[in-house]
Amino acid sequence: MSPNKFYALLVIAALSIVVGGMACGDTQEELDKIDETYGAT
Amino acid sequence: MILLVHLPLLGFGLIYDDGWTLRSNGFLRPGQFDLALLVSPEASARHIPDAFRPTLVVFDMLAVRLVGLSPWAHHLISIALHLGVCALLARLLERLGADLELRLASVAVFGLLAIHAEAVAVVSFHEDLLAALLGLAAILAGLRAIASPRRTSEIAWLLTATLLSALACGAKLSAAALPALVALLAWLRPWPGPLWTERRVGLGLLVIALALAVGVGLALAQNFAVQGSISPYSPEINPRVFAERVGLAPVLAASLQIHVGYLGQMLVPIGLSPEYVDFAAEWTDAATLLALLALVTLTTLAIALRRRAPVFGLAWLGWLVLAVPTSNLIGMPNMRADRFMVLPSVPIAIGLAAGLLALGRFWQARQAQPDPTGLVRWLPLAVFVVIQGSFGLAAARAYVSNATLWRAALRRAPDSARARAMIGLEALAAGRRPDHVDPELAAAVREQCMLARSLDPLDELPVICLAELAVAERDWVPAYQQFALAVELGVDGQRLDRPIAALAQLALDQPDVDTHALATEWLARGLSAYPYSPDLHMAAGRIYHRLGQPERAFALYRRARTLRPERWEPVAFGVELALDLGDAAAAHRTWWAEHDLLAGADPATRDHLERRLAEARRDPAFSPLQSFFSPGAFPDEP
Predict the structure, then answer these.
(1) Distances from the Cα of B304 to the Cαs of B297, B317, B587, in angstroms?
(2) What ipTM was predicted for this assembly?
(3) Of A10, A18, A29, the CB nearest to B400
């Protein structure tokens, strides 16, 4: 397999992961309205 | 590929402890940072966040100076650290003699393992990535010593290894087990290669292990210097550690189950969570016995097969060794967290990669038709990393914001007191109005706070939740009582600056007491214990302003501004104080100079100040030229 094909496969795999990650996620994304919290660890 | 997969993280916010360790951490700001403090008990006395992790504090200071508080830039740093760990893993495997296929596969598995979502997506967990990065660098530096032709360069590389090990443990003590990993490598010698033909390589590796151990000792000495204990979570410092409540044996029994859980999640990434509730288990529980059986069986197999399958031996025994620091043998405030697996997953990733490649080769050999592309051999690995990467990215989406984080935490761990309390606090902060709170919202928040309180009566967060609710309802007496209880419960004293600031302000509205004396008493206590808290200095300035002590109020506003220059509040209060003192020139100068910052102020404050400034301009004595040349309310700082 040529290096170009290999790199193309890597990019395809990365995009599959990004799409898969978006599809699997069930979290509604929203940024905080406030920037102060008490922290919790 | 790993970079591409992690790019969506650049849109995430600063969450979790980022407020405490970065945003409101005045110690990181210009003129405040003092390296010498990080090796002195003063660091604990002044409640410098993460003072027992000096490498992390220095790293955070440099990051804040370099990129400010821009969330995307901090996430880019996280991704860079993760890529750095991947690169060093590849280099280490090369030095140990692993072939290119295994190096590539190991990096792909490690880089995309879903369990790393938390460590890469949350900025305040740079500690885990730094410990891994510096720890692997320490081993590589040690290996350079073996290959050094001259004694001087050998010693120089060993000293470098010691320094890097100290820095790794200074980021997080999870790196303290790395000397044992090096000893394990000397015993197993997993791959043939030039390294293993070096003269006296076994002895050399043991010397490297010793050099790394000296680094661990230096980090422990720093911990002892700062807090009088080698563990940041020893009972005298943090009596809320779960083992202190139920005893070590039930915690260790639970820890066995937890570690089998980690292994399961590294194979099948289901159930990853930002929050796990601490629990105790019996040694006679079926789950404990099965976990013990699995761990003992695999350990026995790894030892017995160490010559025939050394990579399996390295993967399993390496994981065991690297998991020891977070195994709850020494008390931890969280018994379980996904981020604890960053370093221990290194040998697991190597073992998984070797197994997946072997499966691919086996499958390829069984094909009836020859496979000219060679893709079949890589298929198991490709499927594994695509699944892991997808689940990892999905898990990472819980860390977009505090709201999403605590919602996800509550979904995964409904019995978590802190998750419930944080949900209550978030809902209150997002929904309250300046002068009132909607009764329905108040009822919902109260329910969360009370439930959280019943889940863990020793946690101060549910009490703070109730206190903040009482403040929103303008119920000053219960608010004071709840904040006082929170301070009493906050045994480690790490984050009590904001409750103390609230107590000082509420003290002024308490009946039947000398309110001034009470407020100043809280302020004296708070300001000496939290000299780097911008919130506390701002509140103190407000109180002294109200008590008619302008010089003191100005000094506190100025310090609050120095500790957190991005906030408009101290500047607005400084303008107001200048107007109160009749110094219209200084007020106008600051108002004009800080136009951009004050544009972010809340409309009520802006209107109020604009009205007062306009009033001041009507005074015949007012001179715009004099205002222009005035040093303003903040002449020297930040």
Answers:
(1) 10, 12, 78
(2) 0.71
(3) A29
